[in-house]
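Saturday, quiet lab. Running sequence design on the structure tokens for the scaffold JK sent over.
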């Protein structure tokens, strides 16, 4: 089967619109300051995100949505990852698919907000950027469900691997949920977000390699750095291709779980690999808090462990081989 991965004119307009908004309102450097962390910048721009229609992008018109599909949601998720936007944006996008007719309008209009509640090993759960959220997208086992945050129990804030995301431990007990097509939809959105992280790290490394000079020339002219940047671009492109391929098949009703798992696995590898390479390109400065390189690595680790894991995706692929 031939699958055209080139964006349509409308998809390109969606991509351009969301990237323009994110560049203006949510630049990566906002995360250096506490006032831009924990989804604060995203909440300040919530009305503009609603106005763009991203929270109803993949819903049918009969449900009050715009009538696009998963490929368009993947485009938004990818752009969000490049700017290290709060995972709460993805939670809001999937929540409208899980909500009933009563809750859906409030989520689409932004009057109600959602956040992820990620269950780890069946024993503990974490609420991610949940400040002000009325709903939680529960990620437990292989499945997902939408719950009111009041049903999660008491919360206890703590500092996680990514200090720019506000985390809270949940006191409730949560059973595993079965995998559904909506869980696959979300997994592809996570994959696209991780592709964006990989692309953002690559862009940062290339920009630095072109500006930083040693021995009278940009370090990007040195073969070792040049090869490192080329490897980053290839990793990101491979992951992006698989994510878009899986999203298009999903939109055609051919939602093959193996394609989804391949996309999630490749995207996680690309995000982590590129984030690490970005640190190396920046040299000693890349290991300092003043350099934004560490933000990509921490976010890649967090999103790779949210709702799934490398081992879980490998098991799913091998189980169908």
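Result came back. Writing it out in full:
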């Amino acid at each position: 089967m031939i699958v055209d991965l080139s964006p349509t004119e409308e998809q390109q307009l969606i991509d351009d619109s969301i990237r323009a908004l994110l560049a203006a309102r949510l630049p990566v450097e906002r995360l250096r300051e506490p006032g831009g962390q924990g989804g604060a910048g995203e909440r300040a721009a919530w009305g503009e995100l609603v106005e763009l229609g991203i929270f109803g992008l993949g819903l049918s018109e009969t449900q009050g949505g715009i009538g696009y599909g998963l490929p368009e949601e993947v485009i938004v998720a990818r752009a969000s990852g490049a700017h290290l936007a709060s995972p709460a944006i993805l939670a809001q996008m999937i929540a409208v698919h899980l909500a009933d007719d009563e809750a859906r309008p409030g989520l689409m209009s932004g009057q109600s907000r959602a956040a992820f509640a990620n269950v780890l090993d069946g024993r503990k759960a974490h609420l991610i950027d949940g400040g002000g959220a009325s709903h939680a997208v529960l990620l437990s086992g292989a499945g997902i469900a939408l719950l009111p945050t009041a049903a999660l129990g008491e919360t206890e804030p703590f500092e996680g691997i990514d200090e720019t995301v506000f985390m809270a431990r949940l006191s409730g007990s949560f059973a595993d949920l079965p995998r559904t097509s909506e869980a696959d939809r979300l997994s592809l959105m996570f994959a696209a977000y991780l592709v964006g992280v990989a692309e953002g790290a690559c862009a940062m490394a290339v920009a630095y390699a072109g500006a930083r000079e040693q021995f009278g020339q940009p370090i990007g002219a040195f073969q070792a750095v040049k090869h490192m940047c080329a490897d980053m671009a290839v990793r990101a492109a491979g992951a992006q291709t698989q994510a878009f391929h899986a999203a298009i098949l999903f939109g055609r009703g051919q939602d093959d779980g193996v394609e989804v798992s391949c996309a999630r696995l490749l995207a996680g590898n690309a995000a982590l690999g590129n984030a690490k390479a970005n640190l190396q390109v920046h040299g000693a400065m890349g290991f300092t808090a003043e350099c934004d390189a560490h933000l990509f690595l921490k976010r890649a680790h967090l999103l790779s462990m949210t709702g799934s894991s490398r081992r879980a995706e490998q098991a799913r692929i091998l189980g169908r081989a």
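Notes for JK: The beta strands are 114-120, 124-128, 135-140, 143-148, 155-158, 167-170, 213-214, 217-218. The radius of gyration is 19 Å. Ask whether to fix the surface positions before the next round.
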